[in-house]
Design goal:
alpha/beta, six-stranded mixed β-sheet, six-stranded parallel β-sheet, 28 helices, 21 strands, about 45% helix, globular, binds adenosine-5'-triphosphate
């Protein structure tokens, strides 16, 4: 009986892969055939673009479906029977019968939510475990007690598949969890996309992985809107982004930009370093006021008056004239560079009036002798005078954000002296904390991009006309939809049904040039459709100002754990972060189960925050391994670490040595095979990293070195990175929270 079930499922999976191969070949052939069609034939070009745009997106999704294509099956009491997979696939029949349903479709939801108590219409839920294209195991859960059918795969613990996933050796890359999403996680993944959702939870509660699945879900549920506006995912450092970078492509989603906060000002690479104190000061909201005042400082008054030797007579630009022009320009309430023409026009008008008065004065006291044409002529000459322009530039200079912030940091003003001393820059490049300052400066200065915008609009109108032609043509060549967006009700759709000419024009722009995510990466003023911020607790007030500008719709998911805050500039409570932007209109959810760290390790790690807050409650670990964390005191740190690594390396998976930054170089010298440095290769079997680099990551085995030199939150982060084994190596006495650790294999305390 049971082998027969397995055989049936295998036949189904074979059928599925055959269908996938068919679809992939079809899409690839279409693209290959279409691409050479170029030349001057406009119609051929139109056809080609339609085909390529439609088929290339499908290819990415088909590739994603290659692994773990189908992992579940739902048998409903009413006879419906659906397989659930990574992407939706339909048969090539007249009805386009669904073969496998996308995990994000509503009909797939009982796979994650149904319980014996609330079966959601299910009779039976099946988990299919596959290795490559081979079905290796089935787990059946009976949800309808009246169901007497038995397949021989019942009875296994419902958590068996989850526990197997959690226990598996790590690879140095995060994997998707579509097979084992838990109910509390599902609710977050599918929460409405409007507004701000804060997801809080302790280490290992799945905040990151849930946020990534939420991005995949939102791109599915709001495809048109989000594919055009792109989704931004902000993570703490490049190694972390590399670690999570494969999850969304494995779910068939590529319209996402991953960036660290230091990468969010296009054209500037922030590789400089500075003290934590300087970064903290630069992160304060007060910097926005200081910069705003500094911009005003650049709107100066002449002292003494500027005298310009003009062809028609001397012009005198004194403080009164400049003050009136400045008042006029400031009243326009525009950013500095955009208000500059107002200042310039006022100065030119005033100088023209000055000259008119002098040249046209009637010696007999009558009205001015110059007519309007003469005055216009005088004004023109003044407006073209390089000296007048020089004077305007001196009093109201055109500024770039880089210039403004560099000048400001050379001599910081509008700050208490001690703060100014801490951030004064004598040398070195841009630092991550400078990025929000540059962005603030860009806002204060405004970008005088009127000409660029007019050109872009003209280009866009051309594209809309072009797209209209594309739509007319595509109507005759309808293609299939691969996914089950509307489940049973879904129909065969073609480009014409999905979008109007304007939207297609946007699509064409993407197809012809760059993806929305790539365009977004290069555009400081891009408004993202949704932003996900991981380790959100680390961001400064200034960084929040930047991010909020990137998301005027305030459609955001913020993920974090205040107990893991490492940056001194990280701003306190969610209330204080969000009040300026959303008042109290945001939602807060908490994840309470630790899927990473076994009980033995979590109990130890929790003592760190508990020494400051006795009421601290860690997330509940879902599993225990029976392996106790250990500590070893040594006089030869590098030697002891090398020995421990050699010993632990016999275990499967990945090992991390997490040491204070100052020890990392010496330790990596003692471990020649380990990957280390600013951008360690996390897929290497052994890495040496500092606690900041360890944020968000996980390893099978972790060796924490010299914990007495860690700050409390860094130590908490370091101790919670292991999925299996934790050891501590030290020369100095252990911090109190770890004092009960004993030597491996002994019960005795190490102190
Ligand atoms: N439902 C699940 N099924 C399988 N694995 C899961 C599930 N939920 C979480 N995990 C795994 O648990 C581990 C921890 O998840 P994740 O890194 O997202 O946690 P986190 O809350 O962001 O942790 P931290 O704050 O410590 O960085 C990951 O390996 C993740 O794949």
């Amino acid at each position: 009986m049971s082998n027969e079930e397995l055989r049936h499922e295998q036949e189904f999976i074979d059928l599925l892969y055959a269908r996938l191969a068919e679809m992939r070949t079809g899409a690839a052939a279409t693209v290959t055939e279409a691409l050479p069609r170029e030349g001057n034939n406009a119609q051929a070009r139109l056809e080609r673009d339609v085909l390529v745009a439609e088929q290339s997106g499908l290819l990415a999704a088909f590739d994603a479906g290659e692994h773990g294509l189908c992992f579940g099956r739902l048998l409903f009491r009413d006879g419906r029977d659906h397989h659930i997979g990574r992407i939706g696939i339909r048969r090539d029949d007249a009805e386009r019968t669904p073969l496998v349903i996308d995990w994000r479709a509503d009909v797939a939801r009982p796979f994650y939510l149904a319980t014996g108590h609330t079966p959601m219409g299910l009779r039976r839920r099946r988990h299919l475990t596959t290795e490559g294209r081979r079905v290796t195991a089935l787990h059946d859960e009976i949800l309808d007690l009246a169901d007497a059918v038995r397949t021989g795969h019942e009875g296994s613990d419902a958590d068996a598949v989850l526990l197997a996933a959690l226990d598996a050796a790590r690879t140095g890359r995060m994997h998707d969890i579509v097979q084992t999403i838990q109910a509390e996680q599902d609710a977050i993944i599918r929460a409405p996309h409007d507004g701000i959702l804060v997801v809080e939870g302790g280490p290992g509660t799945g905040k990151t992985v849930v946020a990534l699945h939420r991005a995949a879900y939102l791109l599915y549920a709001h495809r048109e809107q989000l594919a055009r506006r792109a989704v931004l995912i902000v993570g703490p450092n490049p190694a972390f982004l590399g670690y999570i970078g494969e999850v969304l492509p494995s779910l068939g989603e590529t319209g996402v930009l991953l960036a660290t906060p230091a990468e969010l000002f296009p054209g500037v690479t922030a590789t400089g370093t500075e003290t934590a104190e300087a970064a903290e000061i630069k992160g304060r909201a007060a910097m926005a006021d200081a910069l705003a005042h500094f911009v005003q400082d650049r709107q100066t008054l002449p002292d003494p008056a500027i005298v310009i030797d003009h062809d028609d007579g001397e012009l005198r630009l004194d403080a009164d004239l400049a003050r009136a022009a400045r008042r006029h320009a400031r009243a326009a309430d525009l950013p500095h560079n955009l208000a500059r023409p107002h200042f310039a026009f006022h100065v030119i008008d005033a100088l023209t009036a000055q000259l008119t008065e002098r040249l046209g004065a009637d010696p007999y006291g009558g009205p001015n002798l110059l007519g309007p044409d003469d005055i216009a002529q005088l004004g023109k000459a003044i407006a073209l005078s390089p000296d007048v322009h020089g004077a305007i530039e001196e009093l109201w200079p055109a500024l770039t954000p880089q210039q403004l912030v560099a000048d400001y940091l050379a001599e910081p003003v509008h700050l208490p002296d001690a703060d100014a001393d801490a951030i004064r820059r004598t040398a070195g490049g841009w630092t991550p904390a400078d990025i929000p300052l540059l962005d603030e400066a860009a806002e204060l200065l405004g970008e005088d991009d009127a000409a660029a915008r007019a050109a872009a609009e003209a280009r866009r109108q051309e594209q809309i006309a072009y797209a209209q032609g594309v739509l007319d043509l595509s109507y005759g060549s309808r293609t299939q939809e691969f996914e089950d967006r509307d489940d049973e009700e879904s129909e065969v759709l073609a480009a014409r049904d999905l979008m109007d000419a304007e939207r297609l024009a946007d699509r064409q722009e993407e197809a012809d040039h760059r993806t929305a995510a790539e365009r977004a990466a290069a555009d400081r003023t891009w408004a993202f459709g949704h932003i996900i911020v991981d380790e959100a607790q680390e961001l400064s007030e200034m960084a929040w100002r930047l991010l909020m500008r990137r998301c005027p719709m305030r459609s955001m998911t913020l993920v974090g754990d205040p107990t893991q805050t490492a940056e001194p500039g990280g701003c306190g409570t969610w209330e204080s972060i969000l009040a300026p932007y959303a008042g109290d209109r945001w939602h807060h959810v908490r994840l309470g189960v630790n899927y990473r760290t076994p009980t033995e390790i979590m109990e130890l790690a929790a003592r760190v925050p508990r020494s400051a807050d006795p009421a601290f409650a860690p997330p509940r670990s879902i599993r225990s391994t029976g392996v106790r964390p250990w500590a070893r005191r040594t006089d030869d740190l590098a030697g002891a670490v090398a020995e421990a690594v050699a010993h632990e390396a016999s275990e499967a998976g990945r090992l991390a040595v997490i040491a204070p930054h100052s020890h990392c170089a010496a330790l990596s010298a003692a471990l020649p095979d380990a990957s280390a440095g600013a951008a360690p290769d996390l897929t290497s079997p052994v890495v040496v990293i500092d606690p900041r680099q360890a944020k968000g990551l996980e390893f099978d085995t972790v060796l924490v070195v010299e914990p007495a030199e860690f700050g409390a939150s860094d130590l908490y982060v370091a101790l919670t990175r292991a999925t299996q084994r934790l050891g501590v190596l030290h020369t100095e006495p252990l911090p109190a929270a770890l004092s009960e650790l004993s030597e491996p294999g002994t019960g005795a305390s190490d102190r």
